[in-house]
Design brief:
This protein is 36% helix and 16% strand. By secondary structure, the protein is α/β, with parallel strands linked by helices.
Amino acid sequence: MTSDHRPLAVFDLDNTLAGTAHRQHFLERRPKDWDAFFAAAPEDPPLAEGVALCREAAGECDVVYLTGRPERCRRATLEWLAAQGLPEGPVHMRRNRDFRPARVTKVEILRRLAADRPVRMLVDDDLAVCDAAEAAGFRVVRARWAEPSETLKEAQETEGRT
């Protein structure tokens, strides 16, 4: 249930709620196989720490999902969230041809969200996104429960793909 009076808790997906290690090999080859990388997302295992925090936050906040996944992954993403029993909430995804760094696109969306409702926290694993969100005045919970991936970091920062 959503209410215009409740603050927002904003959650990233990849390596925050969903484990991506099983599909990162698609990004380690040249050329990167982005289609296969995103096609494998429905098989992501849930990350217990992130899922628990999301469910806990839903007690006091409306949950919003903010991901660098492209819009073309919406149906599979919504099905994955439902299969994990995660709280319902709007899912903000990257436009299909938007390759700006995640630290830019996510802070832009956070500012848009904050114009209407208080944002209690952003939960994300990407250090650049976390730093940019904190610099913009948002409270950040750094998702340190997944194995960091240099491949994913490069994709987020230099290719704007996730």
